[in-house]
């Protein structure tokens, strides 16, 4: 297992319907990341920055990264926005990892920010569903709930997955979110409630879907050479994998798997020399309940068609054999598109360091993050160890 | 028989929208109905208009005639030009074309244009008369107004040639169950009359007269089509006719945007499901792409795809899940179904479903392509394919 790049600091803003500016959210996340560096770190020491953002609603579409970094004390450095839809900061993290691993820089920032709730409902619906195949899926009347709903319908058709199994993912992730002070939805829900939500896109109801979220996240990556000068408890990046796929689900061979996930997962595990059974905690991209089920299967944690059992049988509960989304996941913690991937890494950083408070899972050695763009056109998977 | 074929109708077709509103429904809702003699009328669904009906009728006539068409004549009382859409949707980009807009007699006038053209050059012509006239909501003048389309292929050797002799006009009884369909009224009555005429009959469609020497090609059975009907309430009719307000903020894009130029760059695919076949390995692709997924080659043959298939996956879009482009539709028609359809060629395509109760959709359901309105943005109607049961 290579231990060449470490995370020495991690932070995220509160997630929710906050209607705050991107600058203030990003500053909150970055400040927390700085404060989490045990031996202290000056922002001016950061040499390179990668900021995930989709540009939801319009706003600062151009030069967003420079605005975020100059606003938080990093001037005259190479900085850029990274955009791969909901996987933007998963990719920002990968790019920062590669920059440090290459030896080009010793310290890099990877983060993300998205403000989704400061626009009208009509404008919001113009910006939802812009990351599938805009011309050939959206214009057939779909945003992402509809695309994932069709995947869920196919999964139910092919494997007998049930509405209750989908709902069990929501119940579990809400239970976790209730313990996360930064989560958007901090209350538990019952199975009855999860099943009785308003239909959004058949067979998905309100509780199968993540919300729209304002939030930001930030991570400080350091080379092996300098990591110990910032902390005695670095979290090492063991492997990074990323892959793409057709945007439109009708162009894919199967609608019940995300090949981008499978390819990215295998690449990350190969680099880390880790097998699925070695992973003890995971933050996976559960923008919809079906997405968590697909992720478990596509990453090799569950056999094909068996993913529905995992939440329903408690396997992926916080105190289960294999805790998944202890943060509450996108479902309950929230999904500020461009901030999500780095926020997942924040959670694994806390879990591996034993700093996750009420939602701490039992002593994990190896953790995984899985960040999907759109309905699977892009995916980034990372593995971490102490 | 002394009669023979000549410049005239070789094939005929029609299109009736499936939605009907009855006189009784008007009376229930308004307390009155100012269209004596009309018992019910055909009205367009939310995603239909005179252009979509013209495409459907025109395609049926072309399919029946099995002749290359060199000229397209289109007549309607609508003022909206439709020749580019019709030519693209009907694979008539190379045909000459003329339209007669804004004329209550535009259908018959188009028929006359086509007869003259074919008489002059001997080549086949397609005539489409399509109309969905409207008037102010609730005004008495609105009550009889209905929608339909009729189409004819004119050839130099038509089975129903034009004649200079006198003929008998069709009865008006069809209006009782179809309503007044504007520029399509007389052409639709002509299709019906030819379909029911004994050989040797002469039928007048003022100022034209036709000699029914033999049956033309095509389905001319308007009466049987009257059995395919979906009665709708008056309130729904008003929503379908777009008397309701468009949701504020949806007139123009505020985010995702496909420009009319980009949209029409793929018109053949959007309007008539033309895909590509790799010239090297034969793999089919839809929509068109730049290099073959199987072998990487970049040489293509255009390939019209099968217009039938099965529902491979589907969803029903409820409140909150519709893109803003479709908010107006959702307000008018409620939840709608969208599916990934597996075409009979094996390719998959994502499509909204039409003419279907979303709750009745099932994986494996047989569907066929229809030509419909998708959405309106910047005042431009975006037409394209949908799939309907059947």
Write the layout of secondary structure elements.
The complex is a heterodimer of chains A (386) and B (390).
Chain A: E1 5-12, H1 22-35, E2 48-52, H2 64-71, E3 79-82, H3 88-101, E4 107-114, H4 121-127, H5 144-159, H6 163-177, H7 191-195, E5 199-201, E6 204-205, E7 215-223, H8 224-227, E8 235-244, H9 259-272, E9 281-283, H10 289-298, H11 307-312, H12 329-333, H13 340-353, E10 366-373, E11 378-385
Parallel strand pairs in A: 2-3, 2-4, 9-10
Antiparallel strand pairs in A: 1-7, 1-8, 4-7, 5-6, 8-11, 10-11
Helix pairs in contact in A: 3-13, 6-10
Chain B: E1 6-15, E2 19-22, H1 23-30, E3 40-43, H2 50-65, E4 71-75, H3 83-89, E5 96-100, H4 106-121, E6 125-131, E7 148-158, E8 160-161, H5 175-178, H6 185-196, E9 202-205, E10 208-211, H7 222-225, E11 230-231, H8 234-240, H9 260-265, H10 267-272, E12 274-278, E13 284-285, E14 300-304, E15 308-317, H11 327-333, E16 336-343, E17 348-352, E18 366-377, E19 380-389
Parallel strand pairs in B: 2-11, 4-5, 4-6
Antiparallel strand pairs in B: 1-7, 1-8, 2-3, 6-7, 9-10, 12-13, 12-14, 15-16, 15-18, 16-17, 18-19
Quick gist of this model?
Chain A has about 375 residues and is of the alpha/beta class. Chain A is built from 13 helices and eleven strands.
